[in-house]
Amino acid sequence: GLGSPWRCLIVIAGDCIDFDTHIMNPNRAVYFSTNRLTPFFRRRVRFNTARATAEDVAVDDIVRSIGLTPSLTDDDISIDHRDPEIYAVDDDGKVPFGVSQSRDEEEEAELRFRQHPVVQLSCTDESFDPAPEAMLDAAARILADAPSLSKREAFNQKENWMNNVHNKFLNPSNLYDRNRSFEYLRNDHFMSHAVIRRVLREVRKRVSGLDVTNALDFGAGTGAGAWALSEVFGPSLQNILCVETAPFMRSIAEYQSKDITGSLPASKLDICWTATLPLERLDQYSITMAAFVMQEVHPSNRQNILEHLWACTAPGGVLVVLELGNAQGSASILDSRSRILAMPAARILAPCPHAQECPFASKYAKLTETTNKRKQRQRASGRNFCHYGQRVMIESFPIGSLIRRRPQTASRLRFQNEHLVPFSYVVMQKYDPDAAKTSLEFDPSSWARMIKPPIKRGGHVILDLCQSNGSIERQVVSRSKGSGGPYKLARLSRWSDLWPYTLAPETETNNV
């Protein structure tokens, strides 16, 4: 650790000198070299130290006694410890060739590359940020009085919930009863929040000048969407209309309203909870969202809901539809995508770089036409459907029961509460002629999307891309084309990133 005494060992030509020193910052390194050794035993010895103090005088005496020259000077003591630098001197006091006393030029170039607008737009926000403290406290207070289910009861309840998903006359009161609502808060609340927050951050990056004052969250559940909206758009958000038909879910979400508004300093956020969609205040919401709810709606009712949500979206605003990243959720997103594209003034914003038929649609378009699980498994064999992943950390209190049941796994808690949540989504924007005049310096609407994690190998990177012409292609970005530009960006790329380059050679077209 920093500031703790370390025992250092210097070995020069077989001679060992052992002494104590006090390392204030191990990020800095001081190099020594000596010419009195034979060429075979000549070494450059790395001596870890930083910020010399009064007690380091003894260390300097020991170093000088073996014929080495320390590189620390009085000016080095005042150097900011957050700026790691490398110093090197020979016996004659000169700096060897190729060693710089300032920040490495490669680091400066790397920093400039990461801050370039094209790189900033192409990289999606996949941060591993934890949930807000206020959100954790609110959920902990609710779960303190929540009933606990046995393993058999939880299994039976899950089976009943799955059987009611495709019920044409779905009653949300039966779908999400009291126990099911608490289980959703304990298991799915934070996962939903992390996925929604990531998609909203992408919307904020892609739509320049989007002034989000009013938002509509259909199927709000336990309030994960309201938490994400307040966290991403901050004090500019004034009103959130949350629509949730299940009374138990709505009561849990209403309990957290004061915590959501209290987490924003100097905010006048007003959160309204209702059981039905608005019929009068249409065409005024900058963001309209339906997260993890369309799969629970029968396809025959989906058209009316999407039309109503699209009517509530203001010109220049966006409609976000999210589902779990399984075959059924991806098929639901494909169905919603095709329905919204047929509506007036609709243009796709993410993740698709085109408005043509999805390459996966030919295989999974008819997945929602049956409720037979055997046929669904046959149609959804493999994982060749459009989905992405978000890393989520589930806090300690939801998995406390797991630790009590299996105390031997407590040491591996760090790995048990990290999950990769698959999700599928589509973001549609309502065309606004006035907003179209002000565009970004770089238009990423036609950039390809990485539909699978990049395969990074020695000297080349393999990318699976969904192109703007509606096809899926595999591109190989090799170092032989140059270490900068495409190859460097390919090395930094992650799943679901945008790809701004067009590389004709070494390209293969995949048949889906």
UniProtKB/TrEMBL annotation:
- This protein's GO CC annotations: mitochondrial small ribosomal subunit
Q: Which UniProt keywords apply?
A: Iron, Iron-sulfur, Metal-binding, Mitochondrion, Transit peptide
Q: Which InterPro entries match?
A: Mt_RNA_Methyltransferase, Ribosomal_Rsm22-like, SAM-dependent_MTases_sf
What does the record list as GO biological process? translation
Which GO molecular-function terms appear in the entry? iron-sulfur cluster binding; metal ion binding; methyltransferase activity; structural constituent of ribosome
- Where this protein primarily resides, as one coarse class? mitochondrion
Question: Where is it located?
Answer: Mitochondrion
Function per UniProt: Mitochondrial ribosome (mitoribosome) assembly factor. Binds at the interface of the head and body domains of the mitochondrial small ribosomal subunit (mt-SSU), occluding the mRNA channel and preventing compaction of the head domain towards the body. Probable inactive methyltransferase: retains the characteristic folding and ability to bind S-adenosyl-L-methionine, but it probably lost its methyltransferase activity.
Q: What is this protein called in UniProt?
A: Methyltransferase domain-containing protein
Organism this protein belongs to? Spongospora subterranea
Taxonomic path = Eukaryota, Sar, Rhizaria, Endomyxa, Phytomyxea
